[in-house]
Amino acid sequence: MHSFVRDERLRFQQALASSPLTAFSELMLACFDGGWHETLQHGDFPRWQAAFHTASQFQASSTDIAADRVRIGSAADITDINSDSPSLTESLLLCHPWRKGPFDFFGTHIDTEWRSDIKWNRIRPHLAPLAGQSILDIGCGSGYHLWRMAADQPARVIGIDPMALFSMQFAIFKQHLTDVPAYFLPVGIERMPAQMQCFDSVFSMGVLYHRHSPIDHLRQLHQLLKSKGQLILETLILQGPTDACLIPQGRYAKMRNVWFIPSVSLMQTCLKRCGFENIRCVDVSPTTSQEQRSTSWMYFESLSDFLDPHDPGKTIEGHPAPVRATFIATTK
Ligand SMILES: C[S@@+](CC[C@H](N)C(=O)[O-])C[C@H]1O[C@@H](n2cnc3c(N)ncnc32)[C@H](O)[C@@H]1O
Hints:
The protein is of the alpha/beta class. Helix content is 30%, strand content 23%. 40% of the residues are buried.
C-alpha cells in the first residue's frame, strides 16, 4: 500500500506539472500527503490494507470505466486460486460499507448502497463536454463518479473526500487503472487552497446540505472555478414554489448533519448572489429505493428505514421525503 501511495503521488505530481493547476502543485501535494498520511494512520487501515493486498494480486485483461457498472477485469482473470485464501468477496467486504457504485471487480458484483449510475445518467446529458478539462469532484465518496467522468476524456479529474475508507476503496480500483488521470485527495473542501480559480468544472453532489454554512460553500465553489467554468451542484431540495428552506430542528432521515434544504427558487437565488450566471435547474428527482437501499455490500440501514412506514412521502421525523435537484451554472 505504501508503494502505491508513493507511485500515485508521483503520477499526481506529473499530472499537475505544466497544467493550469501548476501554480498550486505544492499546496495540492501537501493535501495529498496530509490526507494519505491520515488514511495510513487510521485504526481500520490494517483491515483495509488486507483488501487492497488481495485485490492487487490479479491482472485485469480489460477494464470498462464507461459502463454503468464500472468494471475491472473478469472472473476469467483469476487463476491460481488457493482454497485456504479468503474469497474476493470476503476480502472486499473488509472495506464495508460500500456506498457508491456499482462495480464489477474481477467478476464480483459490488452491489453498493447507492446506484450512483442513476444519478450520473440523470446529470451527464446536461454537462458541457468534459473532454480536455480539469475537473474537481467534491465529496467524491469511493470515486465512482471520477471513473465515469474520466471516461469522457478530461485532462485530469481530482476527487476529494475526508473519509479515509473511501480513499482505500478508490485505491483498490486505481491500482488497476494507473493510466487513467483520476486522483484522490483524502481531504475535505476546507483543506483546499483558497482562490484557485483554475478548474473547468467543479462538481458538488450530495455535499451542500451537510455544510453548516451553505453560502460559504457556494462562494468556495465559485473560487475554485476559472472564468466561464461550470458548476454542477446536486443537493436535497424542498418542493414548492416559494423561497422557502428547511433547517431541521433535529435529524433529517436519521442524519444528524443536515443543515439546509432550500426550495429550487431559493437555491437559484443563493447561486446568483454568489456570483453564478446561466443558472439552470436541470433535474428534480425523488430518491427511491431503487437508487438507495441496503445490500449485502452495505448492510446498515438505508432509505426504507429512514421513511415513515405509513407515509413514504415523509421521513421518519415527519419532514418531506428526500428529493434531489441538480443545478448547472457558470462563472463570469
Ligand atoms: C452524500 S455523499 C455524496 C457522494 C457523491 N458525491 C454522490 O453524489 O454520490 C457526501 C460525501 O461528502 C463527503 N464529505 C463530507 N464532508 C466533506 C467535506 N468537508 N469536504 C468534502 N467532502 C465531504 C462525505 O464523506 C461523502 O462521501
